[in-house]
UniProtKB/TrEMBL annotation:
The keyword Kinase applies. Pfam families: Epimerase_2, ROK. InterPro entries: ATPase_NBD (IPR043129), ROK (IPR000600), UDP-GlcNAc_Epase (IPR020004), UDP_GlcNAc_Epimerase_2_dom (IPR003331). This is GLCNE kinase. CDD domains: ASKHA_NBD_ROK_GNE (cd24060), GTB_UDP-GlcNAc_2-Epimerase (cd03786).
């Protein structure tokens, strides 16, 4: 957290020095569905047309990105807007819990998006649960919020969400005088309220002069005439799902009986939407000759369809608002829009509990023509109004570090026999070999072409994986050596990784990728992985030992990772178990690593091979093949007594080290991981039974079930810091 705060201050200073007093207002527009984009698009066009004053960032989330709802993000691209970030935030489900989970998922993902964009102001529309997540995230991060269409009154949970967003927002653009009065009654500052009318109203009024017959023919058939079809758009009422589904069923029965060509649009993403779709299919609506069922109609075409319809029926806000601009008759069913200001073209059927009531309403309304221009608002919310409003209300805020938009990846490289790995986490894991394995040095981090991670390539080039787009939070690095995780510096290492001392891993990578970077020792990372994903989950005190090229480990005490006063805790491979043992790469003698590491076993295997004592019946080696620890293990399995003795000694040395650990920190669990863990686990248990005090002989010793705990630990670093970061 300290690192992140310091980084933020530094970036803020850089931005101020670069831009001086001519800093453009950076506006983030977040759109969640087809309905709110129709209101936000005119504002976005106005902002885009003033590049000397504004920078526009578009964030797309919610049902825009779901195929079942038409992948409506495409209409944003068709309008020539660059989508800066796509966030998959919808949790699919049948009940209210799915909406709550969707809000939670959005709250998890949004902070880093906002932290990366550093907007001066965020524009949020309406009363959807997605918008509540947007407003909550921005408000808590001290980002100014402009709320469109607040102050209105309607039924169901939408009312509560809309007013909650109003209290989170700093500026308000409302559509009617009544909405303005509601905002003032909610103690909002009058100077921060702009009465501007409906943002899409000007576009609605211009629809009358456009060609519409081709659009009607495309969606409803060539034999359909104007004023001789119905548009149906009905959503579930989340406060009474069962009743709203029953009402939808009655509506379809009434429309079938009314026997007019009908365009039925799929409902919004709300609890109960899937059940409504099932009702449609149960009644055969998609195959009925009088019906056309569609997921999405582009807004320009939709307004033509409702402008020339004989009637619109359902409970959408579009019916009680925008359709009034055309004088099209509307039947508003149920309580979803209770309290809305409506025109004379709307017939309310609050208690739509029988087919006959709905059918009677259709007979009353179908084919009528009301005066054009009966919609809400004095006029459209023209962009120039909002631009002036922005300019007069320019806020000050703290800038935070940006985060690049990339696909999640793991980068692996090899340095003189010891693997280093980076983990960039976004819930999923994949690996990619991206480094020259011939041997790397600290200067690697300054060689952008070698890394392939220079700013231009990191920010503008997408790595070509056949995986869905993932947004990732931070970057975690697991590395050998003694690490200062606060500064992201490898303080020093053994001869195992030459020149890997006083290496700042964090700064060059963070500067290149514009990502927060977290660094820790691979043994500590393995312990973090076990705590989050493995045997250590829920265990208060445990120790992890990595048995691989070297010997490392991590200690978790009272659920927290122990680093020590000089970051030297858990250097378990350098516990001395013999005063006159073999020389270790750390410069000492008799360390566990000098006996039980992969390098130690390779050393002993070479000695046997040089004395022609390694190979036994059933083994063979090519002349150019390098002798490794694997050959020693194979020889022991085939009955080579000298190889067996070496492995037994190595297992005993490791077991003695574990006994020392048990007597020092008294964990309740010891986890062995790495390629040699299975070969050592029984030997370690035997030594504990022979050498340990009786009070610790019952400790569990297990082999890790994680494929690569050090790598998973790098992801755990990211998850740990991301979920408890303080801004």
């Amino acid at each position: 957290e300290v690192y992140f705060k310091n980084l933020s201050k530094q970036k803020q200073k850089e931005v101020m020095e670069k831009n001086g007093n001519n800093h453009k207002l950076r506006v983030c527009v977040a759109t969640c569905n087809r309905a709110d984009y129709s209101k936000l698009a005119p504002i976005m066009f106005g902002i885009k047309a003033e590049p000397q004053f504004f920078e526009l960032d578009v964030v797309v989330l919610g049902s825009h990105l779901i195929d079942d709802y038409g992948n409506t993000y495409r209409m944003i691209e068709q309008d020539d807007f660059d989508i800066h970030t796509r966030l998959h935030t919808i949790v699919r489900g049948e009940d209210e819990a799915a909406m709550v989970e969707s809000v939670g998922l959005a709250l998890v993902k949004l902070p880093d998006v906002l932290n990366r964009l550093k907007p001066d102001i965020m524009i949020v529309h309406g009363d959807r649960f997605d918008a509540l997540a947007l407003a909550t995230s921005a408000a808590l991060m001290n980002i100014r919020i402009l709320h469109i269409e607040g102050g209105e009154v309607s039924g169901t949970i939408d009312d509560s969400i809309r007013h909650a967003i109003t209290k989170l927002a700093h500026y308000h653009v409302c559509c009617t005088r009544s909405a303005e009065q509601h905002l003032i009654a909610m103690c909002e500052d009058h100077d921060r309220i702009l009465l501007a009318g409906c943002p899409s109203y000007d576009k609605l009024l211009s629809a009358k002069n456009k060609d519409y017959m081709s659009i009607i023919s495309m969606w409803l058939g060539e034999d359909v005439k104007t004023r001789d079809y119905i548009v149906a758009l009905q959503h579930p009422v989340t406060t009474d799902i069962k009743h709203s589904i029953k009402m939808f069923e009655l509506t379809l029965d009434a429309l079938i009986s009314f026997n007019k060509r009908t365009l039925v649009l799929f409902p919004n993403v709300d609890a109960g939407d899937k059940e409504m779709v099932r009702v449609m299919r149960k009644k055969g609506i998609e195959h009925h000759p009088n019906f056309r069922a569609v997921k999405h109609v582009p807004f320009d075409q939709f307004i033509q369809l409702v402008a020339h319809a004989g009637c619109m029926i359902g409970n959408s806000s579009c019916g009680v608002r925008e359709v009034g601009a055309f004088g099209t008759p509307v039947i508003n069913l149920g309580t979803r829009q209770t309290g809305r200001e409506t025109g004379e073209n709307v017939l309310h059927v609050r208690d739509a509990d029988t087919q006959d009531k709905i059918l009677h309403a259709l007979q009353l309304q179908f084919g009528k023509q009301y005066p054009w221009g009966g919609g809400e608002g004095p006029q459209g919310a023209r962009p120039e109004k909002l631009i002036g409003f922005f300019a007069a209300s320019r806020p000050c805020k703290v800038h935070f570090e940006t985060v690049s938009n990339c696909k999640m990846q793991f980068l692996e490289w090899q340095t003189q026999g010891c693997h280093k790995r980076e983990g960039l986490s976004s819930h999923s894991l994949l690996s990619w070999s991206g480094w020259d394995s011939s041997g790397a040095s600290p200067s690697l981090w300054q060689q952008e072409d070698t890394c392939g991670l220079c700013p231009k390539r990191a920010q503008k080039r997408w790595l070509d994986f056949n995986f869905s787009l993932l947004y990732f939070w931070d970057l975690g690095i697991s590395t050998g050596g003694r690490v200062n995780p606060r500064e992201g510096i490898v303080l020093h290492s053994t001869k195992l990784i030459q020149e890997w001392s006083s290496v700042d891993l964090r700064t060059p990578i963070s500067d290149a990728l514009h990502l927060p970077v977290w660094v820790d020792n691979d043994g500590n990372c393995a312990a973090l992985a076990e705590r989050k994903f493995g045997h250590g989950k829920g265990i208060e005190n445990f120790v992890t030992l990595i048995t691989g090229t070297g010997i490392g480990g991590g200690i978790v005490h009272q659920h927290e990772l122990i680093h020590g006063s000089s970051f030297c805790a858990a250097e378990l491979g350098h516990i001395v178990v013999s005063l006159d043992g073999p020389e270790c790469l750390c410069g000492s003698q008799g360390c566990i690593e000098a006996y039980a590491s992969g390098i130690a076993l390779q050393r002993e295997a070479k000695k046997l091979h040089d004395d022609d004592l390694l190979l036994v019946e059933g083994m063979s080696m090519k002349e150019e093949e390098i002798v490794s620890a694997a050959h020693l293990i194979q020889a022991a399995k085939l009955g080579n007594t000298k190889a067996e003795s070496i492995l037994r000694t190595a297992g005993t040395a490791l077991g003695l080290g574990v006994v020392n650990i048990l007597h020092t920190v008294n964990p309740s669990l010891v986890i062995l991981s790495g390629v040699l863990a299975n070969h050592y686990v029984n030997a370690v248990k035997d030594v504990i039974n022979r050498q340990a005090l009786s009070s610790v002989k019952t400790v569990d010793v297990v082999v890790s079930n994680l494929a690569d705990p050090a790598l998973l630990g790098a992801a755990s670093l990211v998850l740990d810091y991301t979920t408890r970061r303080i801004y």
